[in-house]
């Protein structure tokens, strides 16, 4: 069974685009929540993401893994594939 991947984004955010690009390269399906101008959605994201209000915020199997730098760090450490399995 594939991991459930969720990502909160802002449409013009370069870090969001970069994080989604990594997931697409790995052929990982993900649920995207756009928080563009939606304060309620951003509050939900912050609540789930330990208060973080920056985008992207990424969750794998309902576990908060962080933002763009965090997902690329997991990839470079060889740990991302384990989480996505």
UniProtKB/TrEMBL annotation:
Keyword Cell cycle: no
InterPro entries: GLR_AS, Glutaredoxin, Glutaredoxin_subgr, GRX_bact, Thioredoxin-like_sf
A Pfam family the protein falls into: Glutaredoxin
Keyword Disulfide bond: yes
Single Gene Ontology BP annotation: cell redox homeostasis
GO function terms (MF aspect): glutathione disulfide oxidoreductase activity
Domain Glutaredoxin intervals: 5-65
Keywords in alphabetical order: Cytoplasm, Disulfide bond, Electron transport, Redox-active center, Transport
Gene Ontology CC terms: cytoplasm
Similarity section: Belongs to the glutaredoxin family.
PANTHER family in UniProt: GLUTAREDOXIN 2, GLUTAREDOXIN-1-RELATED
Protein task: Has a glutathione-disulfide oxidoreductase activity in the presence of NADPH and glutathione reductase. Reduces low molecular weight disulfides and proteins.
Protein name: Glutaredoxin
Protein's organism: Plectonema cf. radiosum LEGE 06105
